[in-house]
């Protein structure tokens, strides 16, 4: 069979003539050939919609292969020709009553894709029938079809009570039907403002039992849905997690990572540290195993590991070696591994990590080399006992004179000076040998900061600064700011050396430059120096707060949110889904009597509110043995999440104030 | 979930395009071509532009691409792409541009079946082949047949038909281990581990229940306790972690570590495992590489086989990197295979077709370098090694038994083979 020949542009006229040809075609081979040509042209992006009326005539050909191609055509073009699509209705109506379940399912599946009003109107009745069809294959197809319909017309799904019908399918004897119903309900809940999936313990427990019988994909859908179960009694989370752990052995990484997500989620509702520690131990081996999957899955796993180990440092704490980069790993895998290595580094393994990083610093990919060099510096800041060796390694790297390596090293050495004042200044001499190579703003600014900070120890600081000042007006703002401050520092520390430079810089900053930050800072210095030199000294040379690599860690509120999104895109970008998707319903750790209060301030307002608590109980009671949907079961229960505002806005607000303050100080 | 699925060739021409949701138009296909295929420096398998995310996997000369506008489960999307490749291979032998173009109609049929509204559905090749075939089938298939198919496609053992018959019942087991090794330039082992695969070819009639046993330390220790047998087997292997084909009852493995399953018909991967304890490295490599001045590099590479002299390794290949500015490279290997300088790959390729256990070979060579203007030192990439050793497992893993129970009570014949090959076997110098 070689259908490749159909991949060439077909003329509408010719194709139409072939479709309508009266030639004898007892086995419909000619019809099939022309349909193939049309599908091939569709694939190539050629507009085949003018053929619509002719295609309708082909619908009655009793060959399944042709029917499937016609359906494919309809899915592609029906929306652009809604009137024409009407002509297909008779065919669909006939097919959904076909004795063959495969044909029934095919018809209902295809109708769901054709989102044209008239067709949707005709879909409602058959869909209700199909949801109760005797054949499980038809039922599982119909379940997904409800989700399709919901995307097209939410009101219709609600008025025809399809949600209830889906809910009934959760009791279906067939595991695939259950899994698809769960998938449909989950998506509807995630997109809806007033429908919220919430599982009680008995439903959650039943779904976990169904896992054993489901296909790998079905298992993933069910595991995803388990995030809508909020444990209410002590012991429930532990019990469920225990029953999910066998999934960690599944060959499909989607099942494994989604199981990890549920287990990490349930840990928030566990009482004993011991149980959590036990589960953490069980998580490590399967996560390592994911690193022998394809590189794409490795990447997904690595980005998630980075999140998990920030929340649960016990996971993988002894598995540093598996994150060493292989020479032929794809670059995205290498970069992700590097971050994890840094995160897992501690005083006990710092030497091992350092020797790896030195190896990476000699590789070819510029981006990777830079990150490796930067990591060496961060390592020095993170682990005091290893600082000496890290600095030696950086000096070695600077001596290679490779331009971008030198610049990256200088940027991190600035942080090392900040962290360990008066310990490593002896290397300043080496740094000063490389001034000519600096062409990146960040490196320049770092070097200028060093010169200003140690103006009293660098004998020719004034000469060096003067060199940099030569191009002051062409520099980017961050370098200009650094130069301004460094010059003022020089003047305060060694007035004679700085007295010629300061007026020049202040004049430039205040008169020649448009940037308001720079201008304002210039004025502040100018007034300070002219009115109260002692105050100027106190401000400019003030004691700087300690820096630490803690600032690299993710904000706890964001981390908690991302852990509810393990395996998803958000977990790869380390960004809340609302930052890249519109109308995304945010997820929170829902309050419950057994929620661990690691950060009491965050949850107190909502949990202590007695009415909310009461309503929560009521809701549980109403849910009894089945799912509850706020919009349905709870008349009067307000829509949306009443705790939402409390949970996110508070820590964020506090955080932004703090970082704002730190930033200001760091610049000096 | 997945909104659209595309297959491109290397030129960026669309070979398959299927939209599953109306939140996208076909024109997104062009965006991927511009952003990824025409881009020489792609640094991630996922790109997001606005709220549209593209996932891609490369296979042969194809790009397999899934597009979503949702916060999709990325592991699931990639697993689905891998699955499409596997189904393609099972159907067409090879999954490349030619196969896709020649079978595009079947591929559309498959895609309609295995992905519904962006949700992956049953994708077991065995079941799919019952109703999506490359031969012509008539529309009026007997209704009973179809019901059988639908039960199969949605049932708890969706991977196996119930009416399989063989005259001779046989099962073949292949234990294939990949040894991963990373040795530092001072000769210390940075990491050594084994990732193993157990492949099975089952030609068994009816619905056979199989039980499978390894010299798994945890299991053997447990047996020893329950049978109050004080003798602990010394050759038990500690398995760090394992993963199973979906036919294996995971609950049962979790409770008592027995591997029991109803196998699919034909070939499949029963399990994957990992070990890090007591890895027997099949080869030891001693590299001595000296840069003499700026114009010369001297090589002396010694490699020794560390397994029993009764066994042989096949297809042993060492790739020994040379500096980018090598002008002339000379190598001598004596009796040990052939070595050749491959300028295109910047390395010396040393091939030893047959390598007896306990023997050793040495390569000596010299590279002359041309003068270079830029300063950066040679990055010295690691030596990479490739090999296959039959009837040897680096981890020491052995199959203890495979029991087959079927209600008709037939006898079955089982075969086991072992092979160890190089995974990422790298030696820095």
Automatic annotation (TrEMBL), chain A:
Residues 11-532 form the Clathrin/coatomer adaptor adaptin-like N-terminal domain. It holds the Pfam family Adaptin_N. One of its GO terms (biological process) is vesicle-mediated transport. This is AP complex subunit beta. Belongs to the adaptor complexes large subunit family. It is found in: Endomembrane system. The keyword Phosphoprotein does not apply. Keywords: Membrane, Protein transport, Transport. Coiled coil: none annotated. One of its GO terms (cellular component) is endomembrane system. Adaptins are components of the adaptor complexes which link clathrin to receptors in coated vesicles. Clathrin-associated protein complexes are believed to interact with the cytoplasmic tails of membrane proteins, leading to their selection and concentration. GO terms for molecular function: clathrin binding.
From TrEMBL, chain B:
Keywords: Cell membrane, Coated pit, Endocytosis, Membrane, Protein transport, Transport. GO terms for cellular component: clathrin adaptor complex; clathrin-coated pit; plasma membrane. It comes from Umbelopsis ramanniana AG. SUPFAM superfamilies: Second domain of Mu2 adaptin subunit (ap50) of ap2 adaptor, SNARE-like. One of its GO terms (biological process) is intracellular protein transport. Pfam families: Adap_comp_sub, Clat_adaptor_s. It is found in: Cell membrane; Membrane, Coated pit. PANTHER family: AP COMPLEX SUBUNIT MU. Transmembrane segments: none annotated. Residues 168-428 form the MHD domain. The lineage of its organism: Eukaryota, Fungi, Fungi incertae sedis, Mucoromycota, Mucoromycotina. Belongs to the adaptor complexes medium subunit family. This is MHD domain-containing protein. It is a peripheral membrane protein.
């Amino acid at each position: 069979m070689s259908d490749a020949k159909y991949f060439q542009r077909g003329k509408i006229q010719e194709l139409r003539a072939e479709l309508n040809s009266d030639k004898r075609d007892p086995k419909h081979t000619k019809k099939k050939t022309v349909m193939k040509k049309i599908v091939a042209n569709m694939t190539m992006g050629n507009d085949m919609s003018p053929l619509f009326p002719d295609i309708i005539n082909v619908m009655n050909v009793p060959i399944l292969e042709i029917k499937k191609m016609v359906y494919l055509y309809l899915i592609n073009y029906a929306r652009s020709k809604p009137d024409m699509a009407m002509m297909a209705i008779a065919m669909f109506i006939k097919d959904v009553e076909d004795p063959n379940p495969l044909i029934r399912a095919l018809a209902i599946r295809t109708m769901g894709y054709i989102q044209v009003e008239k067709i949707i109107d005709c879909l409602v009745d058959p869909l209700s029938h199909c949801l109760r069809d005797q054949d499980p294959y038809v039922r599982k197809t119909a379940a997904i079809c409800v989700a399709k319909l919901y995307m097209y017309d939410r009101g219709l799904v609600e008025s025809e009570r399809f949600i209830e019908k889906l809910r009934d399918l959760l009791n279906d004897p067939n595991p695939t039907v259950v899994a698809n119903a769960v998938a449909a309900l989950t998506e509807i809940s995630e997109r809806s403002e007033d429908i919220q999936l919430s599982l009680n313990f008995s439903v959650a427990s039943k779904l976990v039992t169904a896992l054993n019988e489901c296909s790998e994909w079905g298992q993933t859908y069910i595991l995803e849905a388990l995030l809508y179960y909020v444990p209410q009694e002590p012991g429930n989370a532990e019990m469920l997690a225990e029953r999910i752990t066998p999934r960690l052995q599944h060959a499909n990484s989607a099942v494994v990572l989604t199981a990890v997500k549920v287990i990490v989620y349930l840990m928030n509702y566990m009482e004993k540290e011991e149980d959590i520690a036990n589960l953490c131990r069980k998580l490590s081996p399967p996560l390592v195993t994911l690193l022998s999957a394809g590189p794409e899955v490795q990447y997904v796993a690595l980005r998630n590991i980075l999140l998990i180990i920030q929340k649960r440092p016990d996971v993988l704490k002894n598995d540093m070696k598996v994150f060493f980069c292989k020479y032929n790993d794809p670059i995205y895998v290498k970069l992700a591994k590097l971050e994890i290595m840094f995160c897992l580094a501690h005083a006990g393994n710092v030497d091992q990590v350092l020797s790896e990083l030195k190896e990476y610093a000699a590789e070819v990919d510029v981006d990777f080399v830079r990150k490796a060099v930067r990591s060496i510096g961060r390592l020095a800041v993170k682990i005091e006992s290893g600082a000496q060796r890290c600095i030696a390694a950086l000096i070695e790297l600077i001596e290679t004179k490779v331009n971008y390596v030198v610049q990256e090293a200088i940027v991190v050495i600035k942080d090392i000076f900040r962290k360990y004042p008066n310990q490593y200044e002896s290397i300043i001499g080496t740094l000063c040998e490389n001034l000519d190579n600096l062409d990146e703003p960040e490196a320049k600014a770092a070097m200028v900061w060093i010169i200003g900070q140690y103006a009293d120890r660098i004998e020719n600081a004034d000469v060096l600064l003067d060199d940099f000042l030569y191009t002051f007006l062409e520099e980017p703002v961050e370098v200009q700011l650094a130069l301004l401050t460094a010059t003022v520092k020089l003047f305060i520390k060694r007035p004679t050396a700085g007295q010629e430079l300061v007026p020049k810089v202040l004049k430039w900053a205040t008169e020649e430059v448009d940037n308001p930050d720079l201008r304002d800072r210039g004025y502040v210095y100018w007034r300070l120096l002219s009115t109260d030199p002692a105050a100027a000294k106190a401000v400019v040379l003030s004691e700087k707060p300690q820096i630490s690599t803690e600032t690299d860690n993710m904000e706890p509120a964001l981390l908690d949110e991302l852990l509810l999104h393990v395996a998803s895109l958000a977990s790869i970008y380390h960004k809340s889904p609302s930052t890249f998707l519109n109308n995304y319903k945010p997820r929170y750790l829902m309050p419950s009597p057994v929620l661990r209060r690691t950060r009491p301030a965050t949850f107190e307002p909502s949990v202590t509110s007695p009415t909310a608590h009461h309503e929560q109980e009521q809701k549980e009671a109403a849910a009894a043995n089945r799912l509850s949907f706020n919009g349905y079961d709870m008349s009067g229960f307000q829509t949306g999440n009443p705790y939402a505002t409390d949970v996110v806005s508070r820590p964020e607000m506090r955080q932004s104030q703090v970082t704002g303050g730190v930033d200001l100080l760091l610049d000096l | 979930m997945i909104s659209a699925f595309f297959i491109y060739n290397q030129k960026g021409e669309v070979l398959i395009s299927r939209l599953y949701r109306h939140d996208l138009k076909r024109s997104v296909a062009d965006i991927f071509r511009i952003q990824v295929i025409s881009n020489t420096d792609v640094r991630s398998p996922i790109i997001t532009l606005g709220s549209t995310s593209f996932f891609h996997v490369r296979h042969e000369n194809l790009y397999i691409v899934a597009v979503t506008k949702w916060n999709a489960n990325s592991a699931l999307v990639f697993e689905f792409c891998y699955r499409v490749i596997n189904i393609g291979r099972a159907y067409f032998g090879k999954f490349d541009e030619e196969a896709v173009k020649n079978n595009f109609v079947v591929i559309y049929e498959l895609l309609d079946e295995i992905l519904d509204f962006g949700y992956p559905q049953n994708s077991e090749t065995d079941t799919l082949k019952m109703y999506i075939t490359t031969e012509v089938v008539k529309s009026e298939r007997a209704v009973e047949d179809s019901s059988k198919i639908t039960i199969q496609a949605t049932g708890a053992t969706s991977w196996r038909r119930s009416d399989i018959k063989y005259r001779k019942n046989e099962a073949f087991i292949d234990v294939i281990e990949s040894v991963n090794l990373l040795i530092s330039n001072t000769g210390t082992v940075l990491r050594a581990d084994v990732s193993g695969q157990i492949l099975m070819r089952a030609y068994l009639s009816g619905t056979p229940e199989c039980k499978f046993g390894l010299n798994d330390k945890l299991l053997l220790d447990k047996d020893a306790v329950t049978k109050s047998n004080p003798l602990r087997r010394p050759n038990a292997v500690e398995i760090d972690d394992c993963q199973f084909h979906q036919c294996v009852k995971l609950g049962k493995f979790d409770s008592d570590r027995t591997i029991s399953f109803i196998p699919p018909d034909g070939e499949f991967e029963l399990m994957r495992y990992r070990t890090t304890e007591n890895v027997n490295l099949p080869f030891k490599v001693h590299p001595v590489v000296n840069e003499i001045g700026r114009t010369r590099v001297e090589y002396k590479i010694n490699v020794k086989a560390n397994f029993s002299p009764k066994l042989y390794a096949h297809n042993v290949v060492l790739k020994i990197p040379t500096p980018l500015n090598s002008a002339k490279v000379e190598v001598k290997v004596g009796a040990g295979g052939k070595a050749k300088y491959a300028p295109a790959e910047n390395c010396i390729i040393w091939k030893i077709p047959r390598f007896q256990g306990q023997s050793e070979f040495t390569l000596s060579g010299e590279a002359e370098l041309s003068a270079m203007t830029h300063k950066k030192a040679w990055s010295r990439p690691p030596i990479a090694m490739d090999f296959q050793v039959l009837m040897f497992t680096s981890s020491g893993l052995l199959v203890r038994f495979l029991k087959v129970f079927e209600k008709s009570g037939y006898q079955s014949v089982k075969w086991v083979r072992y092979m160890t090959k190089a995974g990422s076997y790298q030696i820095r110098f």
